[in-house]
Amino acid sequence: MKKKILVRCLVGAPIGLAVSVLISIAMSLAVGDGVYYAVVPELARDCGGELNAVALQAVLSLVYGAAWGGASAIWEMDRWSLLKQTAAHLVVCSLATFPIAYFTRWMSHSLPGILGYFGVFFLIYAAIWASLYSALKRRVAQMNRKLNGGEKPGR
């Protein structure tokens, strides 16, 4: 299991970096003034320049992706209930995500900013979880129909 987690962390790290770059491109396009904003201006100020800020954000994005990649192994804990898997995954991902979002200034450093961040984080998490759960439930139903000769289970 440790090797599986390590491999997933190593796969997740570059994905985290790629997602971070894609988000910075999308945000720059949304601003619409033709300038590429690699980091938020506050982070560049905090780091003493844009290059230092980009380097910090890149490293933290690697950590971010590695944490989410490693946390995906939680879903394979067959002895755990879905509720326990979900709670553990949510806690691990929240603990990894919040400090990174805070240090990279992806959120306002105020109580409303932090509460807003967690609100958005939990809404996105819940939406992704619900869509994946629905897709998996449909797939299981399809397999059951095939196993039962095309009949719906329970008939």
Low-confidence stretches: none
User: Multimeric state of these chains?
Assistant: single chain
Could you give the distance between the termini? 40 Å
* Shape summary: elongated
**Mean pLDDT, as a whole number?**
92
Structural class: mainly alpha
* Percent range for β-strand residues: under 5%
Sheet with most strands: none
Number of helices: 5
Radius of gyration: 20 Å
Q: How many beta strands in the DSSP annotation?
A: 0
What pattern of helices and strands is seen along the backbone?
HHHHH
Helix content: over 70%
Structure description:
This protein has helices at residues 2-31, 41-46, 50-71, 82-103, 111-147. It has 155 residues and is an all-alpha fold. It has a domain at 2-78. It is elongated and about 65 Å long. The termini are far apart.
List keywords for this structure.
single chain, 155 residues, mainly alpha, elongated
How would you briefly describe this protein structure?
The protein has 155 residues and is an all-alpha fold. It contains five helices and no strands.
